[in-house]
Design a protein that fits this description.
Layout (H helix, E strand, L loop, with lengths): L1 H95 L8 H30 L4 H11 L1
Length: 150
């Protein structure tokens, strides 16, 4: 009977030892998976940081270029409006003083060409402004806002 009791005790200890070893193995597997997952997370975070860093400078350059273009277009707008106003003043002076304002044909041709260019510029700018108000924000603006907010 004692022998049977010892045998039962050994069997129970064997099962307990096997269960403990199984739990240890599972814990070790979980630990390895966690380390792998954390390493992958660090790698992906580093790649995301590098990508974001690499895109910020081109976006800033595009914004700078856009601002410069807008300033130049505004300057050209003012210049074209000035030419148009100058032409109106000359036209009104011709009506007031028909003797004055009659320059050479070269000058009137040149002035007419300049006036035509300025009117074409203003017409094109008005069309562009109408087009931009009807379109949605560009992909660059979308990416910029996403990158700067994220």
């Amino acid at each position: 009977m004692e022998h049977l009791m010892r045998q039962l005790t050994k069997d129970k200890q064997g099962h307990a030892t096997a269960a403990i070893q199984s739990v240890r193995d599972e814990l070790e597997d979980e630990r390895k998976l966690r380390k792998w997952s954390e390493a992958l997370h660090r790698k992906l975070a580093q790649e995301l940081y590098e990508t974001k860093t690499n895109l910020v400078n081109p976006i800033k350059d595009l914004e700078k270029e856009w601002r410069s273009r807008v300033l130049l277009e505004d300057l050209c707008d003012e210049f074209a409006w000035g030419i148009k106003n100058y032409e109106h003043e000359l036209h009104s002076l011709k009506h007031v003083n028909p003797d004055k304002g009659n320059g050479s044909s070269y000058r009137s041709t040149r002035d007419g060409m300049i006036l035509h260019i300025s009117e074409s510029w203003l017409d094109e700018r008005m069309q562009m402004k109408q087009d931009t108000t009807s379109t949605k924000e560009s992909i660059v603006e979308k990416l910029s806002s996403e990158l700067l907010s994220g």
